[in-house]
Structure formats: structure tokens, C-alpha cells
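Page 42, continued from yesterday. The earlier attempt failed because a stray header line got pasted into the input along with the sequence. Redoing it now with the clean sequence only.
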Amino acid sequence: MFCAILAQNGNAECSSISNKTNSFIRNEYHSHTNQRTEAELKLMRDMRRRNPQLGLAELWHRLKKCSYTRRPESLFRVMCKLGMFPQEEKKAYAPKPYQQMTYPGERGWM
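This time it went through. C-alpha cells are written below.
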């Protein structure tokens, strides 16, 4: 905002900085600073492929030995996104057969 006001008053240097910043934000910034690297993702895929029977805790412990620095919660989240921990599908609710009462108190306490 301040740069735009200065640019209207004749300060062209400030507007060029503003344009560079906007183009950087729109076009050049594609990844998060804490995003997982390809090396980390490859390590996860390889370890899971070689040890498909391992649980999350054991897998995380082995990855930790191989220079993995993140927490197990984030490992689980990423592995779910990559499809390495498929979620079990829940069975649909099947209603049990139900007999309606014919008169009040038919199914009372005994």
C-alpha cells in the first residue's frame, strides 16, 4: 500500500520492487519451506516397499535411524496421502429384523 502511494507521487523505484514482489508471490513461489524433500519421500516408499508388514511405530523408528527427522504423526499423514496406509472401509449398517409391538407393554421388563 505504501509503495503504491509513493509510486503515484513519482517514486518509480518503489513500484518496481512491488511488481517484483508480486510476480515472485504469484509465479515463482510453488513449495512450502518445510515441505518433504524427494529424498524423504523416496526413503519412505523404499522402506515401506521392503517392509510391508511393519507397523507405523516400527517404520518410523527405522526411518529415524536413516536420518528422518519428523514426527510419527506427520509420517502417518503423508503416507495416507500417498496411499501407503489404505483406510479400511467401514461396513454399511445392516438393520436387524424388528417386530413392532401389537399392544403397549408387550416388550416390557420381566
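Notes: Residues 38-82 form one domain.
Reminder to self: strip header lines before submitting.
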